[in-house]
Amino acid sequence: MDQSNTIEKETPTEFSIHPLIKERWSPRSFSEKTISEKEVKTLLEAGRWAPSSNNLQPWTIIWGIKGTETYDRIFNCLHKFNQGWAGNAQVLWACAIRKDIPNNDKENFHALHDLGLFMSNVCTQAESMDIAVHQMAGIDFKKAQNEFNFPDNYHVATAAAFGYYGGNPDVLDDDLKEEELKKERSRKKQSEFAFNGNFKK
Ligand SMILES: Cc1cc2nc3c(=O)[nH]c(=O)nc-3n(C[C@H](O)[C@H](O)[C@H](O)COP(=O)(O)O)c2cc1C
């Protein structure tokens, strides 16, 4: 890691958890250290072994390394807000799901869930390599669908930006820089979403 730009985060856990989970966060500034094709394929491999409903593996990933046409084509599909920082990333992905079940007209209701599991594996693998991941809902999915020739039964759900931790937050606009440097990370309390009994509001 580029120690000169290490941003310290505080993660107030209620119970002790694995450092690969605890220390992950989503930066918008990244180190200038490049990410190789082999590293991208290592991340994809981690995703590949995610569980999925009926082992349907409904994910498709379009990936591009900075300086290549595919990177620029993914970048051009991002919403303006995300274009404001995602160009700092060394690798961009557009992440899609197949919406239907093969050989069956039915909708695969668990496809988004399974893409989430895929990305969770990717995030954990990336963290173990000191690579940060910043996922994005802010992608023009119709534009991406056309740009990358997806058939109608696919949906481009998200994008993701990758880069080694250790970026210089000065490259960000003032608002984003402030958020980047904020120490404390926050989450709902367990008592707000987990019930050993009936649902509670
Ligand atoms: C599916 C998904 C979509 C997201 N969309 C965006 C986005 O479009 N732009 C952005 O800047 N961050 C986006 N984020 C990042 C979240 O805001 C971030 O994960 C959340 O604030 C928690 O912060 P942490 O990842 O640093 O713990 C997204 C994250 C996920 C998982």
Descriptive report:
The chain has helices at residues 19-22, 37-48, 69-77, 80-83, 111-128, 141-147, 174-181, 190-193; strands at residues 59-65, 91-98, 131-136, 154-164. By secondary structure, the protein is an alpha+beta fold. It has a single domain (18-168), classed as 3-Layer(aba) Sandwich (NADH Oxidase), CATH 3.40.109.10. Helix 2 (37-48) packs across helix 5. The longest helix has 18 residues, at 111-128. The model has no long low-confidence stretch (mean pLDDT 97). Bound molecules: flavin mononucleotide. Flavin mononucleotide (FMN) binds next to strand 3.
State the main characteristics:
single chain, 201 residues, alpha+beta, NADH Oxidase, four-stranded antiparallel beta sheet, 4 strands
- Could you report the average pLDDT, rounded to the nearest whole number? 97
Number of helices: 8
Named CATH topology: NADH Oxidase
| Reported CATH architecture | 3-Layer(aba) Sandwich
CATH fourth-tier homologous superfamily = NADH Oxidase
Number of strands: 4
The value of Rg in angstroms is 18 Å
* Element string (H = helix, E = strand): HHEHHEHEHEHH
Bound molecules: flavin mononucleotide
Describe the main β-sheet briefly. Answer: 4 strands, antiparallel
Low-confidence blocks of residues: none
Instruction: Give the fraction of residues assigned to helices.
Output: 25-40%
